[in-house]
Amino acid sequence: MENLQRLLELYREDERIQQIVEALQQITPSRLLLKGMIGAQESFALSGTFLNDPRPHLFIAPDKEEAAYFQNNLTNLFDKKPIWFFPDSFKRPMYFEELNTSNVLQRTETINKITSSSASGEIIVTYPEALFEKVVSPKVLEKTRIEIVMNETLDVDFLIDMLIEYGFERVDFVFEPGQFSIRGGIIDIFSYGNEWPYRV
Q1: For the chain, which ranges sit under pLDDT 50?
Q2: I need a surface site. Which of 38, 66, 166, 200 has the fewest CB within 10 A?
Q3: Which pTM was predicted?
């Protein structure tokens, strides 16, 4: 691990990395072309850039596979820093009616992270198809948000109607985002905005 940190430090100090950082800090950034990169060298160069200038960075790979590979490299280079992956929402390319609920959850988590007040210097890896997909505007999201507070009295029928209207699926046991279940007076809701379901 010590060798890896030293290698990252060498990339951070490299004159060419300094030039990249200076170009990115201009008011109208220049277009840069990095040539001759082999294997994970691109990940090291971009890590050196981030270490020099730790503001938010968005890396756009040519496709989903390369984005996942690149995110994996960065995760291994930055031991303690989370590297966010921003996928598209669909199970298969061009089949827009079939959503991959875990991808929807991952998109929501990433958006929540970068829009939170504590966000600073986040690294996000994505690809063009994921960026072309529209994201719900914060105003619409605020209008369609259901907030449940402890000790609040809820009308169960109204809550069921709301969940169905928002596209949630009623199941026996929730196991993925977009599902809810009812057993007696207990309602389990697996929101797209949280890693674990809620019990009401």
Answers
A1: none
A2: 38
A3: 0.69
